[in-house]
Amino acid sequence: MPTSSFNLDNSYARALPGCYVAWPPAPVAAPRLLHFNHALADELGLGLDAAGADELAALFSGQALPEHVAPIAQAYAGHQFGNFSPQLGDGRALLLGEAIDRHGRRRDLAFKGSGRTPFSRNGDGKAAVGPMLREVLIGEAMHALGIPTTRALAVVATGEPVYREQTLPGAILTRVAASHIRVGTFEYFAAREDRERLKQLADYSIARHDAEFADAPDRHAHWLRAVAERQSALLARWMNVGFIHGVMNTDNMSIAGESIDFGPCAFMEAYHPATVFSSIDQHGRYAYANQPGIAQWNLARFAEAILPLLADDEDKAVEIATDILAGFGERYRRHWLQGVRTKLGLDPALTRSNDDDPRDRALAEDWLALLQAGNVDYTLAWRRMADAAEGRPEPLQALFADTPALQAWLARWQERCAAEAPLSGAQRAQAMRRVNPVIIPRNHRVEEALEAASARGDLGPFEALLAALRRPFDDDPQFARYAEPAPSGYTAGYRTFCGT
Ligand code: AMP
Ligand code: MG
Q1: 17 occurs within a structural domain
Q2: Cα 184 to middle of ligand 2, angstroms
Q3: Is 457 within a domain?
Q4: Phi, psi of 271 (to 5 degrees)
Q5: Ligand 1 pocket check: which of 23, 79, 92, 248 to mutate, most ligand atoms within 8 Å of Cβ?
Q6: Residue at 208 is within a domain
Q7: How far is ligand 1, taken at its centre, from the CA of residue 176, in Å?
Q8: Could you say which DSSP state residue 126 is in?
Q9: pLDDT of residue 493
Q10: Is the pLDDT of residue 4 over 80?
Q11: Rounded to an integer, what distance in angstroms lies between the CA atom of residue 123 and that of residue 100?
């Protein structure tokens, strides 16, 4: 099999013996390429331009890895729904290694669904076509929305059955990530009181993601602050776009600050802060509005794990950690408000001087209250605000039953806009359409695409949806069906499943 120029480093394996197990992918019956992101492969400099579908299927199912690629299963622990599991790890995933992309960034390539590993516990190590294609759709949507995210490079059908509630076709995903270092990675070594490995892992993570303070004597405190800052920014982006991750366990929180592990995730339709879509989240722990608080809770677990690195004296270490974590809420709120301001058509450059103006916060909160009271589609409402900026409030009004309340709010908003900048309505609308998407991965469209692919082997709906998701800010009539909300009865009963 000619796999000549496919080359990966594995600095994680080299630097961190004892943090993983070297492990091969399982053999696969009949690998068949379902999806390959050629543009991403090119960005990663993988040298696969000439590779055909069969060669890519063999490669990205692990059947024809070049000799120097030695996959590993990474060790990690995690707080799952609040409870600590001291040993999780890559039970169905393998890190292949790292590519240095065209911008000089080191990026992980990892399989998901590549068979059992020493961390599999009772799992079969496999993944199904539907959930792996879901990772493609959500990752590409997030990327197109400008939100830091892991992405899918390839999905290969295995030709083997996977046994869940139903028998499903199996698949292997190749995921690209800034790294797969998680909060849970540190918890694993903290739980074992393995101070040496904890420190090695921390220094590896700092060198990889926060090299600017690698030599600072108090680098671990800087690092904790940087990790918290990335999470606060990421959570603000999720909240601004209406994304609900669904399983914000500490093993699903990346130190690099990317969105990762798209299992039972979904985007908000009609706005309600208590929205939960995940079938396994029975108590709503990971409901939409809880997400920033959960991120902070996860960061507290992270801080606990790395406490011995922050200072020799435990009280001092706790003081450092507490101080940094206490700033999370404020950082998050500022990121959130900056995001909301741009969504409202306000110019962040003009408002930065008054970073936390309570009037803007009230304007945004009152808007959300209107959406909630009227059961209004979150994405469409924001999008149509741009029409109102151009003097055409009708499309927006059509979403609301209570027009007087909307009118009153619009009057306040217009006054706020007028006070700020000498923009024409058209200019403001244009800026708003660059940040308020018209197309998000709507649940009924995602399910329709996954169902066609999984049950009938028809990738047409998946590819059409993917094309639309890649242009979230364009009003293109050919994508109109992807902009429409699901019927409300559909959303009320919608649940996504995990672990398939
Ligand atoms: P997740 O819910 O996908 O974030 O996974 C949580 C943990 O369960 C990780 O340690 C996974 O490797 C493991 N896991 C999930 N599904 C499987 C499976 N089918 N086989 C083996 N391990 C699994
Ligand atoms: Mg996970």
Answers
A1: yes
A2: 10
A3: no
A4: -70, 125
A5: 92
A6: no
A7: 18
A8: B
A9: 84
A10: no
A11: 32
Per-residue pLDDT tens digits for 170-203? 999 999 999 999 999 999 999 999 999 999 999 9
Q: Determine contact, residues 92/118, Cβ cutoff 8 Å.
A: no
Instruction: Among 119, 152, 180, identify where a domain stops.
Output: 180
pLDDT in tens, 397-428: 999 998 999 999 999 999 999 988 778 999 99
Report the largest interatomic distance among the alpha carbons of the chain, rounded to a whole angstrom.
69
Residue nearest to ligand 1 atom 2, measured at CA: 499
Average pLDDT of 48-67?
Answer: 96
Q: Does residue 38 share a domain with residue 112?
A: yes
Coil/strand/helix, residue 439:
coil
- 415 C-alpha to center of ligand 1: Å? 51
Range of the domain at 86: 2-180
d(Cα 359, Cα 153) in Å, to the nearest integer? 44
In this structure, the residues whose C-beta lies within 6 A of any atom of ligand 1 are 88-93, 119-120, 123-126, 247, 251-252, 261, 263, 498-499
Same domain, 302 and 409: yes
Q: Which atom of ligand 1 is nearest to the CA of 125?
A: 20
Q: Provide mean pLDDT across the span 304-320.
A: 98
Atom of ligand 1 nearest to the CA of 251: 4
Q: What pTM was computed for the model?
A: 0.97
| Residue 386 pLDDT greater than 50, yes or no | yes
Decide if 141 is inside a domain. Answer: yes
Tokens 């059908």 label which residue? Answer: 157
Q: Do 164 and 247 belong to one domain?
A: no
Mark whether 417 and 273 lie in a shared domain.
yes
Averaged pLDDT score across all residues of the chain: 95
Looking at the annotation, which residues are catalytic? 251
